[in-house]
Design brief:
single chain, mainly alpha
Length: 302
């Protein structure tokens, strides 16, 4: 009994230490979590400073921009005006380039998503000769840099009459976006439980119906993530557009680069044009943010 009592007496401090350590761990976790949030908020605000500066600059006159920095608007709010956006709408080069950007980005994104989804499903669940070798061939195209293909494809498009057209730019972006799309969606579709597909086949569903009714809803997050990536890549591209477009088919990135050469004469058009070209992809990203996060988390778990 004495030994038992002694052992019990020795065990009590151990439990006390454990309780103290767990309480300290909880406090440390709370402090670290709060500190992380503060740091992330500060980083986010710091990241938004150029965007806010560009927005404020687009709402000032050229005289105010040449006289003082954009931050002076917080002490002199009378500087704000929408005259720059009115002049932007009257600039046919900028407005036409914005329309060209939409005409290039939307089809290039839709084609990559549709073709990549069909090819990803085929590589994941359909049996055909040389499937694995074909997939390795597609994946190997990921290492091909865009710069290597610019001159050969430009010569090819020149021979068939696609050089300098919007269709040529769409085809180029589609071709270089498909390897990543097929790789991403094939790996995602391959994780779908086989039992779901077999049950659908037992119910009489064909491949197209199986793809549309089962695979597409389950792969929605990955498809949305791919669409966001492709949209941002094509919208912000300038290299391909600079090579394959002419004056009447240039997107907003090339048009703004042309305006920079005359910076002193059209700064009132350059600032609002740059802000519009930046805020549209941001709006698309935040509109599909939930699907994007779901797709990233699903890929991480799987």
């Amino acid at each position: 009994m004495t030994a038992t009592a002694g052992s019990i007496g020795k065990a009590e401090p151990v439990r006390t230490v454990k309780a103290r350590r767990s309480a300290g761990a909880r406090i440390a976790e709370r402090l670290s979590g709060g500190l992380v949030r503060v740091v992330l908020i500060l980083v986010g605000l710091f990241w938004l400073v150029p965007t806010i500066g560009l927005l404020v600059s687009s709402l000032r006159t050229p005289q105010d921009m040449s006289a003082s920095g954009w931050w002076t608007v917080f002490t002199e709010p009378s500087q704000l005006t929408v005259d720059s956006y009115q002049r932007l709408l009257e600039n046919s080069d900028i407005t036409n380039s914005l329309v060209n950007t939409v005409l290039i980005t939307v089809p290039a994104t839709v084609l990559v998503v549709v073709i990549g989804s069909l090819a990803g499903y085929a590589f994941a669940w359909m049996e055909f000769p040389g499937r694995d070798w074909w997939f390795l061939g597609v994946v190997s195209l990921l290492v091909v840099p865009v710069q290597v293909a610019l001159i050969p494809i430009a010569e090819l498009f020149g021979r068939i009459g696609l050089f300098g057209t919007i269709l040529g730019v769409i085809l180029f972006h589609t071709g270089f976006g498909l390897p990543f799309a097929v790789f991403l969606l094939r790996n995602f579709f391959a994780e779908i439980p086989r039992e779901l597909l077999e049950a659908a086949r037992l119910d009489g569903a064909g491949e197209l119906r199986l793809f549309a009714r089962v695979v597409m809803p389950l792969g929605g997050p990955a498809i949305a993530s791919l669409g966001i990536f492709q949209f941002l890549w094509v919208w912000n591209d300038m290299l391909v557009a600079l090579v394959f477009t002419k004056s009447g088919t240039q997107p907003i990135t090339v048009a703004l680069q042309t305006q920079v050469r005359q910076f002193g004469n059209n700064i009132d058009v350059l600032a609002p044009g740059a802000f519009i070209s930046m805020v549209i992809p941001l709006a698309v990203f935040f509109a599909f943010q939930r699907q994007f996060v779901s797709g990233v988390m699903a890929g991480a778990v799987k």
